[in-house]
Amino acid sequence: MKLPFDSHFFMSVVFLCSVGLLCYLYTSLVEKPNRLRSKLRKQGVSGPPPTILLGNIMELKKARSTTSNSLSSEPPATHNLAAVLLPLFDKWSKQYGQVFMFSIGTKPILCVNQPDIVREFSVCTSLDLGKPSYQLKQLAPLLGQGILTSNGTTWAHHRKILAPELYMEKIKGMMNIISESAISVLNLWNSKIEAEGGVVDIKIDEYMRNFSGDVISRACFGSNYSKGEEIFLKLTALQELMSWNNISNRIPGMRYLPTKTNREAWRLQNEVKKLILQVVKERKETTFEKDLLQMILESAKNSNLSEAATERFIVDNCKNIYLAGYETTAVSATWCLMLLALNQNWQDRVRAEVLEVCGGKIPDVNMLSKMKQLTMVIHETLRLYPPVSVVSREAYKDMKFGNLDVPKGFSFWVMVVTLHTNSDNWGADAHEFNPKRFANGTIGACKLPHMYMPFGVGPRVCLGQNLAMVELKMLMALILSKFTFSLSPQYVHSPTLRLLIEPEHGIKLLMKKLSTVPRV
Ligand code: HEM
User: Fold this and answer.
1) 463 falls in which pLDDT band (50, 70, 90)?
2) Where are the transmembrane segments (predicted)?
């Protein structure tokens, strides 16, 4: 058969295309990352040598698998998470200094724990310092493009719309919802204790999730938990599929292949979208509340977006808020109860404060603000067990931090756990539970307060931190005023790093009703 074109010409085109593709791959996967790394090497920054394409992935993987089973089954004597969860980073930091570079795949990353650079990084307001591109790609299937997963002017637009809805003034209006959600957990525990004769061994994790899910769903979206429950379950399953443990998330391009896991993730994505749009539809038909969902709806309407873009704006931001505020608060509450169970003196002390301030009433904002000991305990919990272990950014143009010229394309990691337990900053008891260090607030707690960052830093600092603190205080105050608790003998201490720092086997407490008012 005669080809309609010259076969030599065809072969030349194929040859040239292949050479072009190889050059492109070589430049973007090998030459460019090497060029970026060499710019920092010239400034004296070193780090573990990366292997071609895989970077330091194999070392990171090995470190994770060797540490995951090495934790004590006893309650912790100290809370040295940096050494347990991030030993490789500890080792690299000792070997290469407080600023070193490593690679995830071909992506060069600068790990920064040096106080002056962390300070500059945390006050930088440039829109060119955004969330890392590799992270946005990884989270896109889970979160689409909302406030958590966008950069530049798109992010600024999302933040402007959402921020006022989470100011303290608005949170005051959510107090009833927050206390009702907490009381429903207390009622369940009460019934369990009565049914089981006075003391009950409870795994608290799901209750904490129900609480924070209920609050987010009702306060921000006006729907009740039973409507949000399905969304939460699917998002949690989706989050699990997106976690580091899933190989598809570690190999570039793998998530586009129709593997079993990916197909399951796509199915869940569609279902979550349908459910959120269903809540939106009901909302349009029935209510004109001025809550977060209403703001998102109105802003989408005013933005002259196409119907598809409007849907995406709504669905993505709903998912972002659900995800940002759900697990983080639940996990913090879980760790806080574990620490109070382990430290009975602090449990008694905070309970005495709660009983004195509230006198048997449900706390209001004013009462919560008077609970100093409780606030100290929560800050200390977030110091030792910060749910978000790394604050990360990428330089989208050449930038300067301290003496460091950082080329465009470099990502930064600030290791929150490492900063939170640095003994130079926090003192010799850095790995111990000592809420007293927060007696003068977060500013007086250590030598360099900007190194305390459970809610992140700079313009992208957590939007929900006021809400989270009020939720945690309300829940702890109500639990402490009704129950006493200690760690269950079945509790196994095994903090693990999924997307967040979580108790691997959950937290079990021995819980009973409070009979007498304790003396301190
Ligand atoms: C104890 C609970 C929480 C913790 C520890 C936490 C922590 C964080 C952290 C570390 C960040 C990233 C900040 C950065 O990159 O500098 C963040 C971002 C965010 N959080 Fe939270 N968070 C909590 C609760 C909440 C709640 C309850 C909500 C909302 C209802 C929320 C909404 C957000 C949003 C929207 C962002 C993205 C901000 C942006 O990129 O502009 N968070 N959070």
Assistant:
1) very high
2) 9-27
- Taking CA atoms only, the protein residue closest to ligand 1 atom 31 is 464
Q: Which amino acid is at 430?
A: A
pTM: 0.90
For a ligand 1 pocket test, name from 455, 467, 499, 502 the mutation site with the most ligand atoms within 8 angstroms of its C-beta.
455
CA of 197 to the centre of ligand 1 (A): 40
The CA-based dihedral angle spanning residues 156, 162, 167, 170, taken in that order and rounded to the nearest 10 degrees:
160
C-alpha span between 335 and 506 (Å, rounded):
10
Long-range contacts of 114-118 (CB under 8 A, 24+ apart): 114/402, 115/425, 115/448, 115/450, 115/451, 116/402, 117/401, 117/402, 117/404, 118/414, 118/419, 118/450, 118/451
Residue range 99-123, pLDDT digits in tens: 999 998 888 999 999 999 999 988 9
- Is the ipTM of this structure higher than 0.90? yes
* Helices 344-358 and 372-384: angle between axes, nearest 10 degrees: 140
Quote the CA–CA distance of 381 and 389 in Å, as a whole number.
13
Residue located nearest, by CA, to atom 35 of ligand 1: 463
**DSSP-derived secondary structure letter, 130:** E
**If you ran DSSP here, which 8-state letter would residue 411 be given?**
E
Ligand 1 centre and the CA of 464: distance in Å?
A: 6
Residues annotated within the binding site are 462
Measured from CB, residues less than 6 Å from any atom of ligand 1 are 147-148, 159, 216, 321, 324-325, 328-329, 332, 387-388, 391, 454-457, 460-464, 467-468
